[in-house]
Design goal:
Layout lengths: L1 H33 L3 H25 L6 H22 L7 H13 L1 H11 L4 H26 L4 H16 L11 H19 L4 H50 L1
Length: about 260
């Protein structure tokens, strides 16, 4: 049994290594096609190495014996996000071809709805897979917000930074880590962020319209996060009040007796 576990663990690690190799291959193809500069190469390679290292460590900690079909889809999305990240880094020197940028981003966004369905249909849903999917989504939004901010200003960065600010705040206020109830509105707002940022990034619409599109994305995100934080805060206050109420009731009963 121990040998089988070791063998399975090695297969899992091999899949993450293959993912890193595919990422490097994609960077090579992009670099050959557009003559990508050093900034794009360094950023893309750093993304590939970081993804491989973090994912390998997470799989090892979780004791995963198989990588799973849904995680393969998410890893494919991560590979595309790595390509988009390299293009954005390179865009500080030269603007990337719009068709290539939009194509890679659009496929990554479309696949966002695939990995979850695959996990449910194959019965391979795991907390690690859900976290992997969420982190890939969050990073793509961050990268897109960086790209759009170059044309519209630093305020756009609030879209990409909001999730990371929430995570940082949860270290100070642990009650922010409490599970949230399922919400179609939350999922819809999250999905719209990438679509609206891509619309603005493509520059197919007039600048004024694009500013309105991004402002709409930010407004929806602020509303969604604000609603969730308020719900968590109220739930935390109720939870904190229950032990106090129970203690007071116990004291009254003790005095009465």
């Amino acid at each position: 049994m121990a040998l089988n576990n070791t063998y399975d663990a090695r297969l899992v690690q091999q899949e993450t290594a293959v993912g890193a190799g595919v990422q490097i291959l994609l960077l090579a193809l992009i670099g050959t096609a557009i003559g990508m500069g050093p900034a794009g190469w360094v950023t893309g390679l750093a993304f590939a190495i970081a993804t491989w290292a973090v994912l390998s460590r997470a799989l090892h900690r979780a004791g995963s014996r198989t990588f799973g079909p849904a995680n393969r889809v998410t890893l494919g999305r991560a590979t595309l996000v790595g390509g988009v990240t390299a293009l954005v880094a390179d865009s500080f020197q030269d603007s990337p071809p719009v068709s290539l940028f939009v194509g890679l981003t659009a496929v990554a966004l479309i696949l966002d709805g695939v990995d979850g369905k695959v996990a449910r249909r194959t019965g391979t849903s795991t907390p690690l897979g859900a976290r992997f999917d969420m982190e890939v989504d969050a990073f793509l939004i961050l990268v897109l917000s960086v790209y759009v901010s170059m044309a519209m200003g630093p305020w756009v960065l609030l879209i990409g930074a909001m999730r990371y600010v929430f995570v940082a705040a949860a270290r100070v206020w642990p009650w922010l880590t409490a599970p949230l109830p399922p919400s179609t509105a939350r999922k819809t707002v999250a999905a719209l962020q990438g679509v609206l940022l891509l619309v603005a990034a493509s520059a197919y619409l007039p600048h004024v319209v694009n500013v309105g599109v991004v402002a709409l994305a930010l407004g929806l995100l602020v509303w969604s996060f604000g609603r969730d934080v308020l719900w968590l805060f109220r739930t935390h206050r109720v939870t904190q009040a229950i032990p106090v109420t129970v203690e007071l009731r116990a004291r009254r009963e003790l005095v009465a007796s």
